[in-house]
Amino acid sequence: MPEIREDLITGGMVIIATERSKRPQDFTHVNEPPKGSKSCVFCYGKEAATPPEIIAIRPGGGLPDCPGWTVRAFPNKFPAVTAAGNPDYINVGGRKAVKAVGAHEVIVDTPEHNQTFGQLPDTCAEQAMEVIASRYRHLSGDLRFQYIQVFKNSGAAAGASLEHSHWQIITVPLVPETVAREIKGTESFWEANGECAYCRMIAEEKNNGSRVIEQTKEFVVLTPFASRFPYETWIIPTKHEPFFEKTGIEEIKALGRTVRRSIRRLERTLCRPPYNLTIHACPAGIKSRSYHWHIKIMPRLSTIAGFEMGSGIHINPVSPEMAAGLLRETQPDIQDDSGMNGVEAND
Ligand SMILES: [Zn+2]
Ligand SMILES: [Zn+2]
Ligand SMILES: [Zn+2]
Question: Which residues, by Cβ under 5 Å, contact ligand 2, an ion?
Answer without folding.
Answer: 196, 198-199, 240, 292
